[in-house]
Amino acid sequence: MPYYDEIELGDEIGPVEKVATDEEVANFCDVWGAPKPNRFTDPDVAAKAGMPGTIVPGIMTMAMMAQLLTDWGGPGSIKDLDLVFRQPVPHNRPLTLAATITDLREEDGENLVECDILMTGTEGERYVGGKAIVVVAGR
Amino acid sequence: MHSHSVSSDDSRATVEQYVKWIQVLRKRGHTVDGIVLTEHRKFDFDKDYSDLAGQYDVLVLKGSELDTRYGHFLVYGVTQALTQAMDFSDVHMDARALMQAARRHDAIALPAHPGRFGIGLTDYIAQGESFDDVEIVELLNGGSRKGENERAEELCKSHNLLGIGGSDAHLTSHIATCMTDFKTPIKTENDLVEALLGKEFQPVWLKNVVNGAS
Predict the structure, then answer these.
(1) Is the peptide bond before A15 cis (omega within 30 degrees of 0)?
(2) Which of A1, A16, A28, B176 has the fewest Cβ atoms surrounding its Cβ within 10 A?
(3) Roughly what angle, to the nearest 10 degrees, separates helices A22-32 and A58-73?
């Protein structure tokens, strides 16, 4: 985990490549208790909702993006995560997660690292994007 | 030429964050003179960014990105009279009427990301629609998927159109990924309209602009 004084504007977190498989989405929905059938695991329900196929739940997408940040900043380091869901996220396709540090500031005794965070596809699809604030330790 | 601040519902960047990020780009050797805020479906008459612009030495101009029945259109040189003539919140407006109204009111409207799959001007032309007033399109768009800017380039070649570049930034670090290099100095929205009408500009990628064009 980086110290505050080691971080510079423009530093990148990631990129990390992930795939949300059918099995992982099904497991997530079971743990979450998603009502069945649903557009996350049932192709017919997804088609009726106008989706090209089953999609990754937004809350799972958010968890994947949060993990990118906590793997970097440590458990409990996320102070804010504000995302815009721009396109449905497909199963079984490579997803690239990355963040760019855009601001560093000390506020109320905390070292705050603000970053843009983005989930993209192999064709340049911008599935989910937004802004996060992570608290990191000083020396 | 194409950016969205938090005044647009799908952006997470403030204008201050954009102009601060431009300082980062300048430190990396890139030349970025200014930005044009093109908020979705509106024009922010009440917003004044001149203090920020002065503090960070970044020109901040305002325009709009409007939804039409033929895709999104960027509008530069917006006036009160134009907003009275056209309902900026009407997502089904006729793009041809918008372009004509814009010129009547000393503004200019042009297609954004015309190569975008499903909603770009390219698809509407393929369906048989014609747009005689289009002379300039957004050739480079920083938010494009693979193939979309290439479709815009084909459109420019086949219809003898000129192109601008715009980042379509919704996040701080995406500002200026694509830009437009003008031959004449620009200080105001009116200058921008005149420069577009003068047709002396070219779209550029940020990565290709190091201590050079802007």
Answers:
(1) yes
(2) A1
(3) 100
Residue B213 above 70 pLDDT? no
CB contact under 8 A, B24 and A126: no
Q: Does A93 touch chain B (CB under 8 A)?
A: no
Task: Give, for B56, the enclosing helix (H) or strand (E).
Answer: helix B50-56
Domains in chain B: boundaries? 15-208
Q: How close does chain A come to B47, measured CA to CA in Å? A: 23
- Measure the CA angle with vertex B41, ends B40 and B43; round to 5°: 90
pTM: 0.93
Residue with tokens 């001149």: B50
Pick B15-208's CATH classification: 3.90.550.10, 3.40.50.720, 3.20.20.140, 3.10.580.10: 3.20.20.140
Q: Which residue's entry shows tokens 């670090």?
A: B173
Q: ipTM of this predicted complex?
A: 0.89
- B15 to each of A81, B21, B166, B169, B204, how far by Cα in Å? 20, 10, 16, 11, 22
The dihedral through the CA atoms of A34, A40, A42, A45 has a sign that is positive
Written as six digits, the tokens of B27 are 């430190």
Phi-psi domain of A124 (left: phi exceeds 0; alpha: psi -120 through 50; beta: other): left
Q: Which domains does chain A have, with CATH numbers?
A: 4-20+55-136 (3.10.129.10)
Given a cut of 90, is residue B211 above it in pLDDT? no
- How many Å apart are CA B74 and CA B99, to the nearest integer? 10
Q: Within 10 Å of residue B161's Cβ, how many Cβ atoms?
A: 20
Nearest CA in chain B to A103: B17
Among B28, B144, B171, the residue with its CB nearest the CB of A116 is: B171
The total number of residues written for chain A in this structure: 139
Q: Quick one: average pLDDT of B109-114?
A: 98
